[in-house]
Amino acid sequence: MLKILISGYTGFIGSNLTNKLCNNVLFGVDIFEKNTVAQHFGWDSLNECTDINCIIHLAGKAHDTKNTATDQEYFDINVGLTQKIFQHFLNSSATKFIFFSSVKAVADSVTGDLLTEDAIPNPQTAYGRSKLEAEKYILNEWAKWRECENENNGAFIDKKVFILRPCMIHGPGNKGNLNLLFKLQQKGLPWPLGTFDNKRSFCSVDNILFVIQQLIDRDIESGIYQVADDDTLSTNELIQLMAFSQNKKAKIWHIPARLIRAFARVGDILHLPLNSERLRKLTESYLVSNQKIKNALGIDKMPVSSDIGLKKTFDSFNKNL
Q1: Mean pLDDT of successive 10-residue segments in the chain (321 residues)?
Q2: Is-contact 18 40, C-beta < 8 A?
């Protein structure tokens, strides 16, 4: 039985993760307290979490599609909390540190056919830049720690560091853009963006949990790994899956793209649900390679496909109606 510290344990991924790892001794660090199997700690009492084996850092400020957050808020939370918990890791008995970054730390739009870990990071949003800054902090501090341990003949190799970059995550408890799309379908409203032809990668939370479990249980090489489902879907295909989960026929309109973009610009000014940022996220092609993590784990396929994972997600939405 392992002792595992999870930051952001009350969130979407954290809630699923605590259920997955419930056979271990779990400690949760968060600004909110939640009645789970994890023993709660506040950030000010982080040093009380001692004698642990693994730290999973989920806490952070998510991407704000309404554009109401300041740049500094992203850096204060995404970088500041990472600095605090990674120093705790280096000073603790924990041997594995798993940090949840994002593909947005690399690119807001994929210019080639497929985003890989070899791409030179060039994030355009404060969210992406803050995640990248947190990654750099981890790698720099870890390198300094290993150098120091090496000079002192320490066993630095025993500590493993993993940076995970998932793409759009879906699963029970998801509260992102998928909820907005699902509500449109549930109300019988048509999907007006059918004219946009795109393909994008998704990531089932079950695949995320699988990867984390493998990193905890096995001797995997430290590094940066993208996490995504194997298959891709267009937004139109996504709408069809949503409608099918509700026993409805998908209503997809093919309105000229220039009119949709004009409406989104109005949404920027009036803070409407559809703004330019959300339109881009809903209609862009964004294909993410997961080959590196599959090679590291020695698998040919991720355990859950996009359509099966999304069906599970939409079934959970239906139960909460």
Answers
A1: 95 94 94 85 90 96 72 95 97 96 93 90 94 98 86 68 96 82 84 90 97 97 98 92 90 94 94 86 89 98 95 88 63
A2: no
**Residues 107, 124: Cα–Cα separation, whole Å:** 7
The answer to whether the beta carbons of residues 320 and 174 sit under 8 Å apart is no
* Calpha distance 229→303 (Å, rounded): 9
Q: What is the SS3 assignment for 114?
A: coil
Look at residue 166 and tell me if it is in a domain: yes
Count structural domains, the chain. 1
Question: 257-270 vs 276-283: helix axis angle to the nearest 10?
Answer: 140
* 170 occurs within a structural domain: yes
Kindly report the number of other CB atoms within 10 A of residue 166's CB atom: 25
Which two tokens mark 118?
A: 């070899």
Classified as helix, coil or strand, 165 is strand
Contacts of 282 (CB under 8 A, 6+ apart): 177, 181, 193, 196, 235
